[in-house]
């Protein structure tokens, strides 16, 4: 069991939650304010995506990232900033009889430089590395991250002095990550995020979380989460298995059945679980020490 728990809050994500929830953070101001509220509730780390302020659609506009990060930093709220670098690997194929007639509006395949340009500019303490490809959901969308692309992204993150949070959605992604570590592209000790419950990746279950945990390198640090109604059960499971936890509106929009959540409320609920299990919630400074991070300003 982990008695010193880091809580990460995934503030807004890139899913289709806008329109399903009346107050998903969309603008840089809304995202920053929600991140700050989550930090005050006990999140040591905030994981940030950005969205088009007009439409709510996911975006990788460097200026939106800059505005959001600057607002968090200028608030003088101590929190570890974790930026997504997962955008730009989105492929939506055409129908089965014409797969190469891909959906141009829903496809965003970007050069590696574009995928991490704002990471280079803003130098967060952490950024994500989605360590593999997978069928993501029920349609024709494929999350696409080839070994060559991942090697280039990992090398860039290392050169920026930003620690990759290795996001793994299935057991094969752990194997891919271990390959990058063996190649010296990711420094030890690595930091993993076990992402469970996304169709058709690893299920959000105790057995699956344990199986993936058991495949991690011996010196790995890790967090884990489940989406939707499995968010809080996976908080407890991750703690029992020795990991840290992630909650937030990216992964789940409800506090209780039919009750919309805020990020701060989800962090507070996770904190209650942590403390009820006899563990303590780490501060941002303690999280930096645990993960080997250097505070950025």
UniProtKB/TrEMBL annotation:
**Which key words tag this protein in UniProt?**
Metal-binding, Transferase, Zinc
Q: Which domain of life is it from?
A: Bacteria
Q: Does the keyword Metal-binding apply?
A: yes
Q: What is this protein called?
A: 3-keto-5-aminohexanoate cleavage protein
- Cofactor(s) needed by this chain: Zn(2+)
The family database entries (InterPro entries) matched by this protein are listed as: Aldolase_TIM, BKACE
Say yes or no: keyword Lyase present. Answer: no
Record-linked Pfam families: BKACE (PF05853)
Q: GO MF terms on file? A: 3-keto-5-aminohexanoate cleavage activity; metal ion binding
